[in-house]
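Q: My labmate handed me this sequence with no annotations at all. I'd like to see what the chain might look like in three dimensions before we decide whether it's worth expressing. Could you predict it?
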Amino acid sequence: MRRIAPRAPGAAGRAVAVSVAVALAVFGSFLLLVTPEFADRPGLQTLWVVLSLVLLKLPLLGLVWWLITRRRRTRLPAWDADRAERHLDALAAEADRVAGTPGAAARLDALSADAWRTAERADSSVTPAAVDLALRLDRLRRRDRTPAGRSPEPSGENLSK
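A: Here is what I predict for the chain of 161 residues:
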């Protein structure tokens, strides 16, 4: 037997509100067809156009605003702090093992991308450590890609001349 998932509280009310907002936004613009009936009263005609265009679109704008802010509020971190710290420790150990070996740039690229992803997905308390590791991996990668005897970044003396 298949179980049906319970609905969220207030789902029926939200469904009605969404339906009304969409109906007003889509079909409310057809009220502009009545505008020529007010041709002899310019003030009333202006008021009619404002009401039919602006006020009928506000429910839809409110709905979109609610969806955007709701999505932003309900997004939880994919990883908790402990899991993210363990992952960052593993990335750092792998970077130390790979650094200086031939062909390390590609592996450091992948490790750096993983560290940036961790900074984005993990709990906010771990984000600074993830960003620090990602920047360190980027520096290691740049150092590995530059030929021997050439500095990866211009020094201050060269810029002043």
